[in-house]
Amino acid sequence: MNKFTFTYLIFVYALFSIFTLNGDIGMGSQVIGSLVLIFIFGIPHGAIDNIIYLSSNKITRLRFYLIYLVTIIVYCIFWWLVPIISLVIFLLLSSYHFGESQLVDYYFAFKKRIIYLFWGFALLSTLIFYNNNELLSLSNQFIDTQVFSQVFNILIFKYIFYSSNAIIISMLIFENYKLSISNQQLMNEIFLLILIHITFYLFPIIISFTLYFIFLHSIKVLKQEFDYLKSLQSDLNLFKFIKLLYPHTLLSIIFLAIFLLLMNFGYINISVFLFSIIGISVITLPHAIIMTNFYNEINVK
Amino acid sequence: MEPIAPDNYVAFTFFIGYIAMLAASVFFFVERGSVDNKWKMSLLVSALITGIAAVHYYYMRDYWLATESSPTFFRYVDWILTVPLMCVEFYLLTKLAGAKKSLLWKLILASTWMLVCGYIGEAFSDGTTGHSVTWGVLSTIGYLYIAYTVWFGEVAQLAEKSNSEAIKKGVKYLAWFVLVGWSIYPIGYMCMEGGWLSSVMAPESIDVWYNIADAINKIGFGLVVYSIAIAESNKKLA
Q1: B185 and B122 Cβ atoms separated by less than 8 Å
Q2: What's the average model confidence in pLDDT over A255-279?
Q3: Pick from A203-217, A271-285, B189-203: least confident
Q4: Which pLDDT tens digit goes with each residue over A214-258?
Q5: Contact, B35 vs B229, CB < 8 A?
Q6: What distance in Å separates residue A184's CA from the closest CA in chain B?
Q7: pLDDT digit string (tens) for B39-63?
Q8: Rounded-to-10 torsion of CA A100, A103, A105, A107
Q9: Taking CB atoms and an 8 Å cutoff, what residues of chain A touch B175?
């Protein structure tokens, strides 16, 4: 167990106690609590993609932003043309990205990219499997997301849930057998998977995802980014790091607010749910690519 | 004496618990002679933990058979003696790497806090969720302090500083006992009236969970200490 898992454990326990006392937590509180955490940790973890990428690649700032924005626009067009395929791409991409950030410290004997993908499959399928009814009712609540119920089909996810969990545990045991990961590391990973299962089973989908996304993903990535930048710039401290994070974080929040206002006044005619999925996915695509590049860089180092 | 029903799992685990604790105690006492002098105290403490538990299990078994109710009082008397002794084990293991007495007292204080809050939560329960959760949370603060200390705090750092692979490995295993083994107790705690699991598990299952947890933790804890002691003693002989 590392400190991220320990923090996660404390928050899961605290929330579980609140749930037991109150019986439930209202949807409004869930969304507000999640948004606050996402604004503080979630958005910042992708807010220095430019610094991370430019520090190790010979490319002009202008070109970087251009490619970054074009990628986002192309994915938006994809969403407009083929929403179901775009959603599937998003799920695949997120799976890989989450798996990569979780397992990047290991040197696997087997193809590491396949292991990353299956870890992510296990994560997302567990989230969707345990909270399928909630997800379906959320999808069916809005006309423009009803089509997603085809993707979030319980029969499909039941299969992915069982197979991906079985495969990732087998893969980790195999890696342990091949001495790529130690007994302690294997125990850590299995403990974390069990903890994730318990969390996703106990809590509603928004809280489940936020807990994972913030404590096991975003904060961990922020730490990796801090360590990397510190290796390049020895006088970097927490304050300076936060100063690096806030311009794009602020920009993202302003853009988000503008979009929400436009939606509110009817200038953009899509539901909040669809907007959230599209918004997260189009940001995830370039971020995931940059993070893969970043992990390759730190592994080489 | 009334015959015990074959599906009386509570009585069954009390019997098994009693015999297992007694056997473990004898084992640790006897094996004390096979290890180097500096490890004798650790094995003695292991034997004391299971020995004290065996005596309590003897009483708890009879109490259960006579009253068919949970022996909460005996249970907590047992824990208030044995859990701080488990903390003593952490101290003894890391003492060789420079652990100070203050570490021992901090761990003992945290474990006592954990148990006193747990006892109030359980023994003075009014059947409400509020009471059960409040004292459960307070008790967990003590638990989290111990878990933090053995995983990342003083104990972990001292183990890391020691030159012995056996101690490093042993402390890691004991930390797993604290993290996973000790987390079985809250399952039992939550089975009591007003607890989160009370709607899905009968209140008497509280003792099954506690008995399983005790067997795993006390005997397992002792066995880990024993394996470190043997490994280190053999190393010295070699």
Answers
A1: no
A2: 86
A3: B189-203
A4: 999 999 999 999 999 898 888 888 999 999 998 889 988 898 889
A5: yes
A6: 8
A7: 889 899 999 999 999 999 999 988 8
A8: -100
A9: 1
Pairwise CB contact (< 8 Å): A21 & B133:
yes
DSSP per position, A4-39? HHHHHHHHHHHHHHHHHHHS---HHHHHHHHHHHII
A128 and A135 Cβ atoms separated by less than 8 Å: yes
**B127's torsion region: left (phi>0), alpha (psi -120 to 50) or beta?**
left
Determine the Cα–Cα distance for residues A128 and A30; give it in Å rounded to an integer.
18
ipTM: 0.81
Say whether residue A17 is in contact with chain B using an 8 A CB cutoff.
yes
- What whole-number distance in Å separates Cα of residue A17 and Cα of residue B176? 23
For B24, the token pair is: 């473990």
pLDDT surpasses 90 at A108: no
A52, two tokens: 């991370």
How many Å lie between the alpha carbon of B232 and the closest alpha carbon of chain A? 20
| Chain-chain contact of B136 with A17 (C-beta, under 8 angstroms) | yes
